[in-house]
Amino acid sequence: MTGPMRRVVDSVPVILLVLGTAFSQAFAAERPVQIPPPAVDSPKAAGTPQTAVLAGGCFWGVQAVFQHMNGVQRALSGYAGGDRATAEYETVSGGRTGHAEAVQITFDPNVVSYGEILRVFFSVAHDPTQLNRQGPDTGTQYRSAIFYANEKQKEIATAYIAQLDKTGKFGRPIVTRVDPLRGFYAAEDYHQDYLLKHPTQPYIVINDMPKVRNFQQTLPELYRAKAVTVGSIGR
To answer: Given this model, what pLDDT does residue 31 score?
Structure first.
């Protein structure tokens, strides 16, 4: 959601969550989709931490989901797809920088695989059939995208999208882009750990808290109750 729109939602009294049933139904988080694990994946093995960079709408909700995933050591909100010079929230919100709001996920490859991260991404973190939007947020900065760091990640991502499209589980084609990672730039401090800091904010209650609950209920074997946090990054 763009800066002005987020400020409007932030100003809505919590009582409207009870009275505004129509609003809640129109903009509620997407329902989880039960999907199979990826047929193509990297085997789990001891090694140095790896990263995945994913975009699926507002980074608040995507970050919150992956903060609860087993094996994830850090989930950092930021920007990917554009230049370093334009990696700033108000500029990205204009929708003309090439950036998407994204999350950099650092994970232990001995605990969780890249394919399992994508399973959570497609199943509960966002709706991969929505083009350049998620819920109430519209614009290319809210596109669904996987930014691959190497050819193996690209192979796993493209194979999984083809696999999921064949299942028909989503009812519509997946529009997730698979693009090379040319840079990831951390978002400002006030965006980090946003759901954990603002659990009663109306936007969070309506759009993002359900994603975390869906994760716990849909993929309990990958979920952990205690969230990993970012803290201050100095922006």
So the answer is: 87
Whether 126 is covered by a domain: the verdict is yes
Single-letter amino acid, residue 202? P
169 by DSSP, 3-state: which? coil
DSSP assigned state of 30: P
CB neighbour list of residue 30: distance below 8 Å, 6 or more residues apart:
126, 127, 134, 135
Question: Among 1, 58, 65, 120, which one carries the catalytic annotation?
Answer: 58
Tell me the residue range of the domain where 84 lies.
Answer: 3-219
Reply yes or no on whether the pLDDT at 102 is more than 80: yes
233 phi, psi to nearest 5 deg: -115, 0
Q: Tokens representing 105?
A: 């996920």
What's the confidence (pLDDT) of residue 29? 55
Look at residue 4 and tell me whether its pLDDT is greater than 90: no
Q: Among this protein's residues, is 58 annotated catalytic?
A: yes
In this structure, what CATH number is given to the domain that contains residue 56? 3.30.1060.10
Helix (H) or strand (E) holding 229: none
